[in-house]
# Entry
Amino acid sequence: MLTGTAPSTQLVRRVNASAMLKAMRGAGVLTGTELMDSTGLSRATVISICDELVRLGWLQELENQRGTGEYVKGRPARRFVFDDGAASVLGIDIGATKITTIVANMAGTALSQVTMPFRTYNVPADERADVLDRIAAEALKKAGVAADSVLAVSVGVAAPVSRDGEVLRAQEFWKSFDVRRIVSERHGWHVLLENDANLAALAERWQGTAQGVDNLVVMLAGDRLGSGIMESGRLLHGQLGGFGELGYLDHVDGVGDTYGIAHYAALWGREAMDSNPTTTLRTLCGGNPEALTAEMVFTAAADGDGPARAALDRLAQRMARVIGSVSTLVNPELVVIAGGVAASAHALIPGIKEEMTEFTFTPPRLATSPLGDGIVSLGAIRHALDYVEEHALDLYPASLPKHEAAG
# Structure
C-alpha cells in the first residue's frame, strides 16, 4: 500500500493545482475563501497549494491593507493573484504555404502574431526548420518575450496526430520533417503536436461562437476540408489520431473528394466565366481566369451576379452533403465553418440549411467562425496552456530561477 501513496498524493496535488490555476487565470485578486468556493477544495488544500504556486512563481500574494478604519474580526484574509506574465507559450500553425505563430502570456492573451511564407514540398528539412526558427524569433521579439520564458509550444499540422502527439507515419511529408524533435532539440522547449482541425475546435470552443457547446464539429474549409470533433467537451482522436478525418468523402455521391470551399468557389467561378461572357467575375479578375479567387466569387454573388450565385448554390449543395454525412455519424449540436474562408462562407449557410435535411435526420445548428485564419494558432495556444496547467508543479516560470524552484 505504501508504494502507491506518494505517486497518488502527487497526482492529486497536480490535479488540484491545475484546478486552482484555471480558477485564478483572468479572475483578478482572489482570497482563499473565494478559491474554496470556485474549486470545491478545502481551506487547508487551497492554502497549501497557493503557497507552493507562490514559491514556483505562478501566483503573487498581495499585502493585506485594511485601511478602512473599520474593525474586522480575526486575521485578514490572504489574497492571491495569478501572474499572467510569469511565462509564455507559442502556438504555431504549419500550413501548406505559410506558417503563423502566436506568442501568448499565461492568461492566453496574444502578445504578437507573425506569418511567413512556407514551402512544404521539395525543401530540405533543415531549411524548413530554419524558417520555423526565424518566425519564432521574430514573434518573440515582437512580443518582447525572452526565449527562456517559453514553457510549451503547440504545433498544428494537417495530418492525423495520435493522443501521444505522434503524426501518422503514412503521411510522407512528416516522415522527413520531425518538427517536434527539431524544435525541441534547437530550443529546449517542450513541443506538443496536434491536428490542425482539432486545434481549430479548441479555439472555437474557447473564444469563438462555440463557447459553452460540448458537442461540436469545427470544419476547416479553405482549400481542403478537415474536421475537429468534440463530444461531451472532449476532443476525439480515435485509435491512431484519425477521428474526424474526411477521406471517406471520396466515396460520397455529390462530393467525391476533400477539396474545400475556397477551391470550388474559384473553380466553379472560372467555369461560370467560360459559359457566361457578361458575368461580372470577368471584370473582378481583370479577364484572367487564373486570377479569380473565392472572395471575388462571393463578392459578385452578393452584388447579384447570376452565374456567381449559381456557383455558390452548387457549393451550398455540396457542403450540405458533407455536413449531413458528418452529422449522421457524430450528431453534433453545432457545426462551425472555420478558417480564412469563414467570413465569406456565411453566405452559404441559408442554402446549406435548406439542403441539409435531405442528408441527415439530425441536422445541427450552423455557424461561421469569427476567428479568421489565425484559428489554428489560437487553438495551439489553448493546447499549450492546457499542458502548462496540468504540469504547473513541474514547470518553472522565468520569474523564478529554475534551480531555486527545484530546490
User: Anything to note?
Assistant: Residues 2-82 form a domain with the Arc Repressor Mutant, subunit A fold (CATH 1.10.10.10). The first helix runs from residue 5 to 24. Residues 29 and 81 are 5 Å apart (CA to CA).
